[in-house]
Structure formats: structure tokens, C-alpha cells
Amino acid sequence: MISEDAALREQVATAVRLLTAEGIMDFNGHLSVRAPDAPDQILINPRRISRNAVLAKEIVRVDLRNRPVKDELEPPSETPLHTAIYRQRADVMSVAHIHPMIATAFSIAQVPIVPVFTLGCIFGDGVPVFNKPDLIRSDQLADELAESLGNARAALMYGHGAVVVGENVEACFNACIWFEENAKKLLAARQMNGAIKPFTPEEIARLKKQMWQPEVLRKTWDYYVDKGKRAGVLD
Ligand SMILES: [Zn+2]
């Protein structure tokens, strides 16, 4: 039987490839998950392997002080961003650092991201902006970023990208997809003559209950896995 560790490595590699294929991750970017047997260790895609081609066996294990646990491949230079969030948020089991085109533009324009389509409801608590464009390579900057994120689902990093968190890899992957999709629809609506009509708090609460369900997350995940297989993104 395949171990939980092996299954998670496979999931991380799959999520990274699929997010890259969707243009949400690019030559940089990473996704991590807490190790199943050690909550103070994470599994993350390595620094120098192409996000298009990363394999489960190349996923690296790192402790919450950014030290590789075994002599594996080099972890990403921005690993501190992941570990700081795991240190501050016991509820978070998976973290993604992405460079989504449209959502990132909102950080540059300093226009707030508000939920405007059904699946965007998970960002109803607001999307904080971390207003430094630097790469997050130190624990100090990473702690500042984690503080900006607070209890939110996602935070924008000014002129850089975003961090998105989830209860597991599937949830984190879905949140990344929905984050950029919400930003695209918000951008489209903002081009038109007329005021934006964001969801009310009641609508957000209602939609969240309907949408943030394991079967919805699984359906989206399966859709992208199938799409990835057909496109040759996955083996
Ligand atoms: Zn980055």
C-alpha cells in the first residue's frame, strides 16, 4: 500500500504541475503540505526543478526553521514564507506561493479584491496586501507576511504574487484556482460602466457553506487532473 507520505508527495507534485499549466504558478512558485507524521515538518517542491516537470520523488522535507531534514534537493529560497505561516497558523495544512497575473495586478493598483463569483466566497473575509515587493527569504520578512495574512485564506504580495492556504493540498489548490478566477471576473466587471455589486455578508456566508465542501473540492481537483492528463501536463 502506498504510504501517506508518498501520497502527499504525489499530490504536491501534481498540484504544482497543474497550477503551472494554468499560469497561476510559473518558473517560480511552490506548494507545501505538513508532513503526515510530523506537524513541524513540511513537504515542498524543490528550488531548481521545473514546475512543469516536478516528480513526487523530488519533493523535499524541511523543518519549520527551513532546514532540510534529509540530504535531499535544495528547498526554494522563499521556504521561510511557508514555515512562518505554519508556525503561526495551526489550522493551516497546506500553503501555496503563486504568481497569478490578474490577482497580482490588484496589488499594484491597490484595488481591494472582493468576492464577485460563487467560488470567490472563500475570500469574503478580505484579502490583505503585504506591501513589500521583496522575495521572502528571511524569517523576519516571512513573519511580517504571516502577520499580514492573519486568519485570511489568501494575502496579496505587492507587485509579486500571493500566498494562499488550505486545510489540505486539494483545498489549497482549489483556493489558488478560485482566487485568480475571482480576480479575472472582478477585473472584467470593473471595465464596464456601472458600479460593482459585491456579495453581501449573508450571501458570502451562504455560498461558503454551499461551496467549501469536500465534494466540490474533489470535483474541481478531478476536473483539473483530467484536463492535465489530456493536455500531457500529467503522466
Ligand atoms: Zn515569489
The parts where pLDDT drops under 50 for at least 5 residues are: none
> What portion of residues belong to β-strands?
5-15%
By DSSP (H or I, 4+ residues per run), the number of helices equals: 7
Query: What hetero molecules are bound to the protein chains?
Result: zinc ion
* Rg: 17 Å
Number of strands: 7
Biggest sheet descriptor: 7 strands, mixed
Elements, N to C (H/E): HEEEHEHEHEEHHH
Question: What gap, in angstroms, lies between the N and C termini?
Answer: 20 Å
| Lateral arrangement of strands in the main beta sheet | 3-2-1-4-7-6-5
Q: What is the typical, i.e. mean, pLDDT?
A: 95
The dominant shape is: globular
Determine the fraction of residues in helical runs and give it as a percent range: 40-55%
The secondary structure category is alpha+beta
Short description:
A seven-stranded mixed β-sheet has the order 3-2-1-4-7-6-5, sandwiched between helices. With 235 residues, it is of the alpha+beta class. It has seven helices and seven strands.
Report on the architecture of this protein.
By secondary structure, the protein is an alpha+beta fold. It has helices spanning 4-21, 79-88, 101-109, 139-149, 169-190, 201-211, 214-230; strands spanning 30-35, 38-44, 60-63, 94-98, 129-130, 154-157, 161-166. The chain has a seven-stranded mixed sheet, with helices on both faces. A hairpin with a 3-residue loop joins strand 6 and strand 7. Helix 1 (4-21) runs parallel beside helix 5 and helix 5 packs across helix 7 (214-230). Bound molecules: zinc ion. Residues 28, 78, 97, 135, 160-161 line the site of zinc ion.
